[in-house]
Predict the 3D structure of the following.
Amino acid sequence: MRLHRFTVIAAVFMGLPAAAAEVHQVPFVVGLTTTSTVSEPRGDYETLEVLQDIGRDFITLVRSSDAAPNDDGEITDLSISRRVRLQDLHNSRFLRTYFHTSDPQEFPGTSPLVTSVMINELRATGHTHVTYLDVEPQFGMTFVKHTVSGDLIRVEPGPVELTMLVNGSRIALRTLHVKARVTDGDYVREFEQFLLDDAANPMVLRSRGSKGSSAVVVKIEFPVPPGAADSMEQQLSKQRKAVVYGIYFAFAHADIRPVSERVLQEIAQVMKKNPDWKLRIDGHTDNIGGDKSNLELSQRRAASVKSALVQRYGIAADRLSTGGYGASQPQEKNDTPEGRARNRRVVLTRE
């Protein structure tokens, strides 16, 4: 079984877009989902991290990865959870970002994420100490291969604004740009990162290693209250249309991944609350692949959403119609993983 890493991985390091006028925060709430896109010639596949639960002493993170087909055409759909003590998420200086599927859910004293104490020290002094536990599986067990330590050091004296896709919109987030050189004897790792400048919600948004490895969050999503102006129900009520990014499909397939259940449930609740509404469900893809295959894929994905709403949530089939546009209506250019992520979407239209 493979190792899973609780930081996102993509094929390229994204450049810094222009800063927006208003800077927003990302709430630390159940359902918070960060998505990365791994890019290959055959297309993009996504890995997701979901904040599944926040308890009195622990949080539970679930990471799922829907990898591209192997040489036999099989798709690897992996999911694993980890419980993290809140005191470790706040105060630990030991990061264990990898662990094996057979490992226990908890690793006391470590965090899979950047911690609050690190963010606060970077703000106050411009540097913070960190230790990474570099692990690998052997003989059915996981061993610490290297214990590398060093300092994260801020590059700019002030925050750097990055524009990210948050709940379907381009939002400016304040980040801390840091570089690090961590060592274990002769073993050396160098990297730079952009960290969300929020001690209440530590998060690595972008990372690049000295040997070419890179990571980038391409979109962030979190639940909004039903009555909020940007809620799905309000959008359908006022604009008669809602763009949905929280429905995830298997790589190049129409199968809906389990992490999509929260959004499907939200659509069903809106339909039950408004029994006179009828919805058209349209799928959209990026441009990787042929026009014909993308059009058919977008149509199948829309049909899968309808089927889930009818079969699992009891929505009458005659209240739902489906269609798809393939890659013919892009929201952004398809030349970056982030742009392609915004183009892969489901659009609901009230008829």
User: Anything to note?
Assistant: The mean pLDDT is 86. The two ends are 47 Å apart (CA to CA).
